[in-house]
Amino acid sequence: MRGRFAPTPSGRIHLGNAFSALVAWLSVRAAGGEVVLRIEDLDPRAASWERAALLMDDLRWLGLDWDEGPFWQSERAALYDEAIARLDAAGLTYPCFCSRAELHAASAPHASDGTPVYAGTCRGLSPEEVARRSAERPPATRLRVPDADDPAGAIEFCDLAYGPRREVLARECGDFLVRRSDGVIAYQLAVVVDDALMGVTQVVRGRDLLGSCARQIYLSRLLGWDAPEYGHVPLLVAPDGRRLSKRDRDLDLGVLRERGVRPERVVGVLAGALGLAEKGWEGPAAELVGTFSWERVAAHRDDVVCDAEFLAKLLG
Question: Is residue 232 over pLDDT 80?
Fold first, then answer.
């Protein structure tokens, strides 16, 4: 087995990121596998060597090591361009001129990750219309998905925590981006290329990315690769149900470390929330390797509320 950490260097590791990183690490180590570290710095706004160094320091502080990397997505542009060229040659892509505002103003429903289901507005543009619009603004690149009644577009898989899933791409997301209009490679394509070429066989991440699996499995098939198995973990949420993010600065590891919180406590609180450790246990992540199981994670897959009780356990 080969798993991976794939953080974006936009700030210190947040407690929610640590939640999924801990499960990813335990799953691989329990199987005697290898962990790859990949820094997802495709977007120039997120590219920072300094922040990436802090992320790696936070991982080491938690006791989560890796066997290969770090690999930097910003250095792999040629591999992504090659994959898109293959899709282009197969007639599977087309230029899209829709703005973000136009997409969100559309009456179409939204996918599980909040992305508007694309209505196919630019799918049938003539070569002349494409040339005219391209002179005004650079297009994004979209991947055609099969029609709703085409079995090729019905993607089935079994998540390690959330069980059997089925998604019809035409209904759930529509034609999706593989390259943005500013030239930045889209997340869906980059992770498929990287996971395949890095030999990743298991992807563990937060439940908010569960809706990306069908698109990534479909892309893997088009490019001739076996998709990895997927396991998703619950999210850490505020009492009002809002997903915690890096905006919640009081729960990033930098702040917790400044407050004197020990890594053993962080590991213990997170593991306890997933049923991977007894309530009140504190210790290094390595001590949990021998008892890790996805059955326990699946039995505790409800989102974890960071209420006063949770924070009291964490901060002591």
Answer: yes
